[in-house]
Amino acid sequence: MVCCKGRPDLDLQRSVQVKQNAYNHKVRIFESSQGARIAQLPLNAFPDFWVYAYLVLYEEYCLLIDSGSGFHNSDQHLEEGFQAASALLDRALDFADLSHILITHGHIDHFGGLPFLRQRTKAKIGVHELDQLNLTHTEERLLLVARRLERYLLEAGVSAARSRELVNIYRMTKLSYQPGRVDFTYEDIGMGLGPFEMLHVPGHCAGQVVIRLHDVLFCGDHVLSEITPHQAPEHLSLHTGLSHYLQSLESCQTWSEGVQLALGGHNEPINHLSARIDEIQELHYQRLDEFLTHFKEPLTIADISRRCFGELHGYNILLALEEAGAHVEYLHQRGLLEIANRDELESTPSQVPIRYQTAKY
Fold first, then answer.
1. Which of 14, 93, 120, 361 could be cross-linked to 86 through a Cys-Cys bond (beta carbons 3.0 to 4.6 Å apart)?
2. Domain range 18-137+172-272, its CATH number among 3.40.50.300, 3.40.50.150, 3.30.230.10, 3.60.15.10
């Protein structure tokens, strides 16, 4: 049985809700233990969906961490954020002043602003190797992921018509991004840029990194203060999946010892990072135990998604199906679930829904 340390305040619904809770829509200033000044820039990436980028000033570095989505008001808010930061820091700042742009991971709400920035700055752009193609060969990545996603949804028990609809929703917010250059990748520079140190923490995204500057950690979407970062099965994209994510939480907890402030791509700052990592681990163990209680009868991933996350709409349907799939994959890999309709899979050439049940032994 999977270890469960369940907490009543962490429920199954929270990880698939839109990340819009408790946002502070004003630029805020933080400072590291060695005097680096950090401006938190709130960006309206999509309607009712906010992200943070971070402008960091230290010694010769004028550096931006993440760039927003490039959609909705995101680019406008990036400009306004620079203006507000200039006033708060008492220093005139413009995109042309940027020395580097560091992308925490290859999800569109964190790198989609790059085409806007490339026209306004000569800053060097960096990302982890495993997410480089998301920025430079976007259409190729979308084609491959969309093919895998459609097959996954059919095997998850989603109808062909709904599968096509969900794949189109997935692609819709990414097709207008204009691919462009990446100047360096993190492993190629030794996972460090001057005082900035990177740790590869795959799971939420294949190339997800956290970036440390003195006693401040920029988390991207690896650790968030109010929700559990979204998970998808590794079946869809290598180096994602719940196994990688839980291992990355462990490595991040050890590597970030001494961090006093963690700044995420969403939600409020985290003052007690280790405790928050413990909470997220507990939620996933609780969720795994919860899932197992339902598989006394054969269920598809779509079945368990509806049971545990309820009826959802739009993009949240896809998020819930991926989240459910990540947990089912974890349990199946460890022999706690088995496929109940193997004969049907062997006799049917096309994709059929896969039904899982509690393993007999």
1. 93
2. 3.60.15.10
